[in-house]
Amino acid sequence: MQATIQSSQSSQVTKETLLTPRFYTTDFEEMSKLDISTNKEEFEALLEEFQADYNRQHFIRDDEFEKSWNSLDNKTKGLFIEFLERSCTAEFSGFLLYKELSRRLKSVNPIIAECFLLMSRDEARHAGFLNKAMGDFNLSLDLGFLTKSRKYTFFSPKFIFYATYLSEKIGYWRYITIYRHLEKHPEYRIYPIFKFFENWCQDENRHGDFFAALLKSQPQFLQTFSSKLWCRFFLLSVFATMYLNDCQRSGFYESIGLDARQYDIHVIRKTNESASRIFPIALNLDDPAFFQNMDFCTTKNRLLIEIDQKSENPYIKNLQKLPIYFEMGLSLIKLYLIKPIESEYINKSIK
């Protein structure tokens, strides 16, 4: 599958890989049977927050967007456009999932349906704002094409809850960390979109709180032995995906004055801490083997990229990649087997 980026001069395509933002679908019938009665008051409070729409007037472009961005060197511009494209795709993916969930649940669970509808509003606003930013570089993401042509990955409801909760919370920490850094170092603010990140990340935080409430309303997703294994799996998956992606694109972070690795370590630690308030376990990030294995995977991922750039024969490529995939897989298994920490101990230390 390929996603089209339209340009005034040419058309480009973006290769879809395991690290590319994905589009999801789920078992809507199973979702409609979820009982939220034990946590109804929290959902009603969340709905009031969504209805307040604190960011209604936030995503309005000011005069600073009107200047020419031709002064950016080609490398920085290319990295920034890729950042905009990936972010827009991820936000649009959330919009489609939440909108469909709202439509399917409207008749059986109106409170949850309305929450999903208002979250889809937020995601559409984010995606549209990012796409307008791409327009400043004479590009745009064809969202209609994405809707029709992208492959949808099926996740059961509980997996949707784990993955989306973490993606929203990690999104919060990513945005707020960049915002706070650029607040201290405005000389690295290469484009005005970063000024919007403080309020923007509050949308991500509220969305994360909604999925936290969903998880709390379904104790079978948090209190069983298997749920601990799944929480561990999704924590590692989300962290490893971000780490590999960002280290692969370290040039973008350098352009805004950040070290990609240190930035990711900070975001991972903060997200791990946030998740421990809901998940029964947290990853042991202080075990030296954790980031050693993450760095090993990063090194191997660079080799995969080099193989793609050097070789044109797909058979030779796959043959060269096979031992690298094996080594990365083994390293990820080692990461998974690092004994996690019971969340209660983390929460006691935070207090």
TrEMBL record:
GO terms of biological process kind: light-independent chlorophyll biosynthetic process; photosynthesis
Swiss-Prot/TrEMBL keywords: Chlorophyll biosynthesis, Chloroplast, Iron, Metal-binding, NADP, Oxidoreductase, Photosynthesis, Plastid
Pathway stated in the Swiss-Prot or TrEMBL entry: Porphyrin-containing compound metabolism; chlorophyll biosynthesis (light-independent)
EC number(s) per entry: 1.14.13.81
Main location class: plastid
The UniProt record lists the keyword Magnesium: no
Ranges for domain Rubrerythrin diiron-binding: 82-215
EC class: oxidoreductase
Catalytic activity, as annotated: Mg-protoporphyrin IX 13-monomethyl ester + 3 NADPH + 3 O2 + 2 H(+) = 3,8-divinyl protochlorophyllide a + 3 NADP(+) + 5 H2O
Gene Ontology terms: cellular component: chloroplast
Cellular localization per UniProt: Plastid, Chloroplast
SUPFAM superfamilies: Ferritin-like
Cofactor: Fe cation
Cross-referenced Pfam families: Rubrerythrin
Any one GO MF annotation of this record: magnesium-protoporphyrin IX monomethyl ester (oxidative) cyclase activity
Biological function: Catalyzes the formation of the isocyclic ring in chlorophyll biosynthesis. Mediates the cyclase reaction, which results in the formation of divinylprotochlorophyllide (Pchlide) characteristic of all chlorophylls from magnesium-protoporphyrin IX 13-monomethyl ester (MgPMME).
Annotated family: Belongs to the AcsF family.
PANTHER family assigned to the protein according to its UniProt record, in alphabetical order: MAGNESIUM-PROTOPORPHYRIN IX MONOMETHYL ESTER [OXIDATIVE] CYCLASE, CHLOROPLASTIC
Name recorded for this polypeptide: Magnesium-protoporphyrin IX monomethyl ester [oxidative] cyclase
Classification lineage: Eukaryota, Rhodophyta, Florideophyceae, Corallinophycidae, Corallinales
